[in-house]
From TrEMBL:
Gene Ontology MF, one: potassium ion transmembrane transporter activity
Residue ranges of domain RCK N-terminal in the record: 1-123, 232-348
Protein name: Trk system potassium uptake protein TrkA
Record bears the keyword Translocase: no
Location of the RCK C-terminal domain: 143-227, 368-453
NCBIfam families, A to Z: PRK09496.1-1, PRK09496.1-2, PRK09496.1-4, PRK09496.3-2
Pfam families given in the database record: TrkA_C (PF02080), TrkA_N (PF02254)
PANTHER family for the chain: POTASSIUM CHANNEL PROTEIN 2-RELATED-RELATED, TRK SYSTEM POTASSIUM UPTAKE PROTEIN TRKA
GO CC terms of this entry: plasma membrane
Sorted UniProt keywords: Ion transport, NAD, Potassium, Potassium transport, Transport
Length: 458
């Protein structure tokens, strides 16, 4: 797959285009607004076209006849649906993805079949971001929690805390602390520089450690890096938009949830729609409001409005006033690097959180899941291995016999219900789910080729 047509140059479209260009795909992006396209054309090696995404003539001019994949992420659900139908009927584009936000449409999956709007995969960014945030509530010590093999294994990013068992210890110490728990530290970032870990690597306070383990063992590994933290009970959300509403709906039965919303009509609607959430009308940057709502007793504060500055300011204020942990949605991805790990504990770019679910459909081979790490700089992939020793470069080989590209690390194998942490002698079998950490995105294509079935297998 090499020719990709993107409709819509908003945050998601632009972020995906940038990722794919860096991975040497041929990308064309269409938008009605030339001002959205100009910075992309100036900065990236891609083709831009000003035009309406639902016009057959515009799609033809954009090269739809030669496209391998269509990604429709304009702001309008209806336009994305129509574009997919035109792509299918007139241009026979093999794979078609559309962003759909409207719950009424999402509740009618029959609309997306080939006989109707011909959408292969529906992307709902608000739900993807909500699921991401829920995973951070379940594992509040983590910076990132990623599921693989249907939740059997997880890759977790954790920051080493002063006084934890592993503070100042080498990685070999983990074997003594956790003799019966197999896990793999796949990467360490210290002051934004990657350290390739081995048993002699000594952990320091502030190190960002990525490790992979069977899900039931995650908590034990975290305890050695962070110590024991109090359970989450009280959660405050600022912003009752799509993500704020979905998150409150998910959490309200298990936690004490407060939701702050500035818009009067929206607050009234939320109060009715969320009977187990305390909805407050007000501004989350109002110190008096936070004080009156006892923000110092809040275990977890989420800033989820559509305004980056408001999210930054309210998170900083909540933290200063005593909130235990703050998580902010930041749409400008450059801000994310500046803010994460300071007064704001976790900063999330919704576009980058969404990209993984799109990239899984772009990758060649049987790729089940793709997760962007380190704000898009690295990637974790789950690939199902197929073939025989005659048709595959990896089946029947031990891991230390496989020449992985630079920066790629095979972290684990899921075989049936068993999670096997990768060791040099581990043999790869057909139908294994392999989980890989790829530090350098330039080597993604090499990884795909290594795990692909050789031509002639079919």
């Amino acid at each position: 797959m090499s020719n990709i047509l993107i409709l819509g140059a908003g945050r998601v479209g632009a972020s995906v285009a940038e990722q794919l260009v860096h991975e040497r795909y041929h990308v064309t992006i269409v938008d009605e607004n030339p001002e959205q396209l100009k910075p992309l054309a100036d900065r990236l090696d891609l083709r831009t076209l000003v035009g309406h995404a639902g016009s057959p003539a515009v799609l033809a001019a954009a090269g739809a006849a030669d496209a391998d994949l269509l990604l429709a992420v304009t702001p309008l659900d209806e336009l994305n649906m129509v574009a997919c139908k035109i792509a299918y009927e007139l241009f026979n584009i093999p794979t078609r993805l559309a962003r759909i936000r409207d719950p009424d449409l999402l509740a009618r999956p029959e609309l997306f079949t080939d006989n109707n709007f011909a959408i292969d995969h529906v992307i709902t960014p608000a739900q993807i971001v909500t699921d991401y945030l829920v995973s951070l509530v379940a594992t509040p010590e983590a910076l990132q929690v990623l599921d693989f093999a249907g939740g059997k294994a997880q890759l977790v990013a954790i920051r080493v805390e002063a006084g934890a068992h592993m503070d100042g210890q080498d990685l070999a110490t983990l074997d003594k602390l956790l003799p019966k728990i197999d896990r793999r530290v796949v990467s360490i970032y210290r002051k934004n520089h990657r350290i390739h870990p081995d048993g002699n690597t000594v952990l320091q306070v502030g190190d960002e450690v990525f490790f992979l383990a069977a899900t039931e063992h995650i908590r034990a590994v975290i305890k050695e890096m962070r110590g024991t933290e109090k359970a989450i009970k009280r959660i405050t959300l600022s912003g009752g938009g799509n993500v704020g509403y979905r998150l409150a709906q998910t959490l309200q039965h298990d936690y004490q949830v407060k939701l702050i919303e500035a818009n009067k009509e929206r607050a009234a609607w939320l109060a009715e729609a969320l009977p187990h959430t305390l909805v407050l009308r007000g501004d989350a940057t109002d110190e008096a409001l936070l004080e009156s709502e006892l923000i110092e007793r809040c275990d977890l504060y989420f800033a989820l409005t559509s305004d980056d500055e408001d999210n930054i300011m309210s998170s900083l204020l909540a933290k200063q006033m005593g909130a235990r942990k703050t998580i902010a949605i930041i749409n400008r991805s450059r801000y994310v690097d500046l803010l994460q790990g300071g007064k704001i504990d976790v900063a999330i770019s919704p576009a980058i959180a969404t990209i993984g679910s799109l990239l899984a459909h772009v990758r060649s081979g049987d790729v089940v899941a793709v997760h962007s790490l380190r704000r898009g700089a690295a990637e974790a992939m789950e690939i199902i291995v197929h073939g025989t020793p005659a048709t595959s470069r990896v089946v029947g080989k031990k891991i230390d016999e496989i020449k992985l590209p630079s920066g790629a690390d095979l972290a684990a194998i899921v075989r049936g219900n068993k999670v096997l942490i990768a060791h040099g002698h581990t043999m790869i079998e057909s139908d294994d789910h392999v989980i890989l950490f790829v530090d350098n995105k330039a080597h993604i294509r090499e990884v795909e080729q290594l795990f692909a079935v050789k031509i002639g297998f079919f």
